[in-house]
């Protein structure tokens, strides 16, 4: 009976190892999305200043501030408007002392996040594997 449990345990370990390899080393649904160097600097500032504590990207993050996934393509929110929000603060948002370059980096990060898709994505479908098939944003769409 002891050999039976060892055998079952071994099979479960093999299945777990195979499943982990498939999930973590397989191709993703993200395609060839790569952030530019300026957007990476913006992402670093986003994380360093803990922006995700209050704001969300694709619905992930805090709930005190608005979701900023598609803010850069919002027709009523220009780049200048977003830069002013970054440094002046509004209501419960603190004032940040971002330099002009840092503002550009964060704005570039938000622009590149915006190009990856829509949020909320009402046409997203959850696949049996657990991956989410989402509606991609076309290059000519804002």
Short description:
The protein has a domain of 99 residues: Cytochrome Bc1 Complex, Chain D, domain 2 (Orthogonal Bundle), CATH 1.10.760. The protein has four helices and four strands, in the order ααββααββ.
Question: If you had to describe this structure to a student in words, what would you say it looks like?
Answer:
It is built from four helices and four strands. The chain has a domain at 35-133: Orthogonal Bundle (Cytochrome Bc1 Complex, Chain D, domain 2), CATH 1.10.760.10. It has helices at 2-25, 37-48, 79-88, 100-115, and strands spanning 56-57, 60-61, 125-126, 132-133. With 142 residues, the protein is mainly alpha-helical. The model has no long low-confidence stretch (mean pLDDT 84). The strands form two sheets. Strands 1-2 form a two-stranded antiparallel sheet. A two-stranded antiparallel sheet has the order 3-4.
Helical fraction equals 40-55%
Tell me which CATH architecture of the domain at 35-133 applies here.
Orthogonal Bundle
Largest sheet at a glance? 2 strands, antiparallel
Overall pLDDT level: 84
CATH class of the domain at 35-133 equals Mainly Alpha
Structural classification: mainly alpha
Distance N terminus to C terminus? 64 Å
Query: How many E strands?
Result: 4
Relevant CATH superfamily of the domain at 35-133:
Cytochrome c-like domain
**Percentage beta strand:** 5-15%
Q: Which sequence of strands runs across the widest sheet?
A: 1-2
Name the overall outline.
Answer: elongated
Q: Summarize the helix and strand pattern as letters.
A: HHEEHHEE
């Amino acid at each position: 009976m002891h050999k039976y449990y060892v055998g079952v345990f071994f099979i479960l370990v093999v299945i777990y190892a195979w499943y982990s390899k498939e999930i973590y080393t397989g191709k993703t649904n993200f395609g060839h999305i790569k952030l530019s160097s300026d957007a990476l600097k913006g992402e670093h500032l986003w994380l360093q200043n803990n922006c995700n504590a209050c704001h969300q990207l694709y619905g992930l993050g805090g709930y005190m501030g608005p979701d900023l996934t598609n803010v850069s393509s919002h027709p009523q929110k220009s780049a200048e408007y977003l830069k002013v929000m970054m440094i002046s603060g509004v209501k419960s948002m603190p004032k940040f002392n971002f330099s002009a370059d840092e503002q550009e980096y964060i704005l570039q990060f938000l622009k590149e996040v915006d190009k990856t898709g829509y949020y909320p994505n009402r046409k997203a479908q959850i696949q049996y594997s657990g991956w989410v098939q989402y509606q991609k944003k076309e290059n000519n769409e804002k």
